[in-house]
From TrEMBL:
Catalytic activities: 2 Fe(III)-[cytochrome b5] + NADH = 2 Fe(II)-[cytochrome b5] + NAD(+) + H(+)
Protein name in UniProt: Cytochrome b5 reductase 4
Domain CS: 156-247
Gene that this sequence comes from: Cyb5r4
Enzyme Commission code: 1.6.2.2
Top EC class for this record: oxidoreductase
Natural source organism: Penelope pileata
GO molecular function: cytochrome-b5 reductase activity, acting on NADH; heme binding; metal ion binding
Amino acid sequence: VPLKPGRSLMDWIRLTKSGKDLTGLQGRLIEVTEDELAKHNTKENCWICIRGLVYNVTPYMEYHPGGEDELMRAAGTDGTDLFDQVHRWVNYESMLKECLVGRMAFKPVAAPKGKCLIFILLSIVFNNSVQYLVNTGNFIQVQILMLQLKEYMSLPSRYSYDWFQTDDLITIVIYTKKKDMNAELVIADCQDKRLRAEIILDDHSYLVEVVLEHAVQDDFAVHIAEKVGKVEIILTKEDNIQWKVLGRPLESHNTFIERTDRGLFYRKCQLVSKTEVTHDTKLFCFMLPKGTHLQVPTGQHVYLKQIIAGTEVVKPYTPLLPFLPLDFKEPSCQEGAHIYFMIKIYSCGLFTQALDHLQIGDYISVSSPEGSFKKSQAQTVEDLFLLAAGTGFTPMVKLLNFALAEVSCLRTVKLIFFNKKEEDILWRNQLEQLALKDERFEVQFILSEPTKDWLGKRGKISSSLLSECVKRSRKDSKVLICICGPTPFTEQGVQYLKDLGYSQEEMHAFTA
Ligand code: FAD
Ligand code: NAP
């Protein structure tokens, strides 16, 4: 929502650093009961619990980018689920640390039968530690233990790892027994003896995470036996000594859980180049560390993290290719050691201004990928429509490349690209060249603020415009319409398409 002047994230950061008492408790931390939490449920007096910690968000109301009403949905309650649904990537601990009231008090109630069973199981598995924690009122740790038990119980035995060594190599083997394993599904980082290898298995992931017994060289190899789903990570020993153990397991080692239950993992990447795309948009190229194996899948985004005025700020961005390939006979070019972003610099943007001030050689933290788009949605498509507004073009780049290079039944791809002015159009030359080169591809530019000389289409997204521009090439052709841009653009687009008779399966909206 539009925020009032003086209510930007930067203004919020300034307020939190001003020394003002934002909780009304003069720095005291308290234990909050459910009844007490429920009393603080108005805009003027609003407390919210996230992961067992209670925040007084009253002073934050006017600064919330999603608006006061969104925040009020969690007023006086545990807002953890709501928070996770909307933006689990936002670093609330850092942003709201001055609003911390305290933690939830454990409520001693007679546990229902089911819970009793879990408590008994937990006690057995964790050597009665739960009982001790319950007795001492340490509710948060009980929750952590319950989560660990959930993970433990949900770990099917078919996921496992093994390791062996030669004089100079350590090979870690992960058996997923999943067909069609590929490099995008293996995210591995090895820095300062800490090895983290995450294998993506649909909505879950399997993790090997250890502090290695001895030092290894920075770079490593990943080999994948696609048909049997075997993944090998081959490390080179720093010294030719025999290892007795692989290393010390970290907290989430050898777990198989839902991806959304894992915290975001970041690695530091170095800015290699920054080139102008238009008057306000730049192409950033970052180099991944030597000890990282990461390929962002088509249609997915990552989070970039910077410390701005002492506060961690995180924003999502969609990696793309450095240019639009024109030849699809060769296998598509992979990011490899580099990751590219096309980013619009807003004159009053907190994050993009800081990005624009990065010097070549500076570092930024880049998370592992996220996003709901699956290549299988486009694998059998005949007509692909891409509706993009402004930088909403970014996910379309890899998608376009994937469709033209790998979808054998594809007949047409049409990009309908909405911008304000002619000078805002991203990669116009490349898109026009591609349209000339490949007869399956067509691009249409639509401007909302054109000059009188503009001969192309003008206007905003609307039902009539979509019914005119989005048409199946044959009566029953299999169609996919992907849409990305400012949230209202995307929401309106989806609604118009529904009204025009397209089904949910025939659309994909890119969102956070
Ligand atoms: P803020 O400080 O948050 O806002 C400053 C001003 O900038 C606002 O008042 C407004 O005028 C303008 N502004 C800020 N954000 C937006 C917005 N989202 N839409 C319209 N106007 C805005 N951006 C890219 O440039 N490239 C990408 O590849 C990209 N990928 C994204 C992927 C996802 C999944 C999502 C949800 C967003 C993506 N964005 C992308 C947008 C990006 O995350 C930031 O919102 C944007 O860079 C602005 O951040 P800021 O901190 O500079 O602006
Ligand atoms: P912009 O230049 O402000 O606008 C581009 C086009 O979109 C213009 O034609 C504009 O028309 C139209 N538009 C803007 N707001 C609209 C609205 N409310 N309703 C209908 N049409 C609207 O766009 P931008 O600054 O580049 O912003 C791009 C957006 O894409 C950002 O919000 C970014 O977060 C989002 N994005 C999302 C993802 C993702 O994966 N979810 C990826 C990349 C970018 P008007 O002149 O009429 O406004």
